[in-house]
Amino acid sequence: MRNEKNSFLSKQTLSPYILVLLSTKNSLSKALSSFYPFAGRYRIDTHSVNCGDQGAEFVQAKVDIRLDDLVSQRMNVKAELLNDLVPCPMGVIDGYDDPLLAVQVNAFSCGGFAITVCTSHRIADMQSVMSFVSAWAIATKQELGYVDENYQPILPNFDSGSLFPGKMLPCIPAGLGREKENFELYKIVTKMFYFDKSKISSIRERARLDDSSLLPSKVQSISGLIGKAIIDVHVANPENPNTYTIIQAVNIRKRTVLPLPDNQFGNLYILSSFQSAVGPERVASLATLVNYLSKSVKGVVDACATVLLLEIISNLFE
């Protein structure tokens, strides 16, 4: 029998790179134990999640530039380059065997880190994803000793399916399919727009109707500005269809009667939209577009109050 000297490495002896990798990887497993649908696989035939603990994808990468070199470029950074920082191309989380969650930990040469997350919109909206990210962050801090290990984040509610039973309807087509991963082949263009605080304030002033004393929201003002730019292109080119639709997603949590909590897991939103025709002699102003969008959103917000009650009543008579 041979005696060997065992060596135990403490967290203090690990390099920051290894320490962050180990902490984020271990904490990801802990977070997934609470958000277990992200570790399953989506079944398109039954519109359900097979929670067989198939796992999420964890990718680690080293980036040979400084983090501030990337951040300082702001709107001048090529969005295509950002794809190297994400764990999978767009559309590659929708196959039968694809994970519903993929994360990538990027270590920059300066010692900074950037963590990216890809999820399937089939099972979770942004509110649900951010709840998961928050729980993962807390678990990571616990791994590093920055948060009391006995502290527990608010766990998600998974009873959305009983509140809003599936109707087996076809999914709304959104995003890109797996066959369109090649940006150059399909001439896919991505743009990044940056608006500072003063510019947003100016846009909100321009987006306000003359007879209104209220400023429109930031989201609706910027959406209207981008929408108008696209509409103006259509007007200038008669060969393009002279109709437009502007859509905004509205979170229904806390807007229903009985209010749903922020930790309600799933796709809990309603799309507000309006559509109109334009032409060379009928061009809507920015204020008009934003006003239409604001009214549409308000109508959806008002409808949120009854959507849960109507669903409950409908289920009683089925």
TrEMBL record:
Keywords: Acyltransferase, Transferase. Belongs to the plant acyltransferase family. It comes from Heracleum sosnowskyi. Coiled coil: none annotated. InterPro entries: CAT-like_dom_sf. It comes from the Eukaryota. GO terms for molecular function: acyltransferase activity. This is Pelargonidin 3-O-(6-caffeoylglucoside) 5-O-(6-O-malonylglucoside) 4'''-malonyltransferase-like.
